[in-house]
Amino acid sequence: MYYVDLNCDMGEGMDTDAAIMPYISSANIACGYHAGNKSTIERTITLALQHQVAIGAHPGFADKENFGRTEQHLPDTALYDLITEQLHIIQTVCRSLNAVITHVKPHGALYNMAARTPDMARIIVKAVKDADPTLRFFGLSNSWLIEAAEEAGLKAVSEVFADRTYQDDGSLTPRSRPDAMIETEEKALQQALQMVTQQQVTSVNGITVPLTTQTICLHGDGAHAVPFAKAVHEALYHHQITIQHV
Description:
- 39% of the residues lie in helices and 20% in strands.
- The chain is of the alpha/beta class.
- Strand 7 (200-202) and strand 8 (208-210) form a beta hairpin.
- Helix 4 packs across helix 5, helix 5 crosses helix 6 (144-152) and helix 7 packs across helix 8.
- The mean pLDDT is 96.
- InterPro entries: Glyco_hydro/deAcase_b/a-brl (IPR011330), LamB/YcsF/PxpA-like (IPR005501).
């Protein structure tokens, strides 16, 4: 029997959140810095509670103009504060709604930079641990994010992507490239099943890359977001793979 978590980045101003929520087990909610505000946070947490979906924080760079997808190089204290402030925002709203935050997943450029930069990963992890050492930490499989979380004693959750392509080293194909996103449902399903049942992915160059699959990310901002979420959920169920939050 296989088990996997399905997560989606939400509260980012897309109109797909309500339609996707029934198909996932974990929601990563924007904290108002790269997207969203208090109202969107409240709405998304309420939706998650209605569907018994685990609630997570999705902190990113304070850069709404570029949706948090432009790299920034911050001093260590500024990076630590960036995470701490956003976790505080989510925690405050959760308390007001009698909800509990279960995990943290960095967003966009922050996520990708930390995945390859050990010092940056460790600062982000420290901020999370200092805020709440019981939180699970979502990071790119086989990256510094996972290693830093494990070093710090946090519960690390290895994340893979059904709708993104991979490079030979296990990194995600940069969004600046035309082949960064998987655009067909068939390919997304094939990749999701491969990652869960074989613990590997095929790179854009045809190389088999081993990885650890504990949670699969489905993006809520793609053109095929809702159909992809529904199709992946149904395909996993059809293959007797249990979907549950970690």
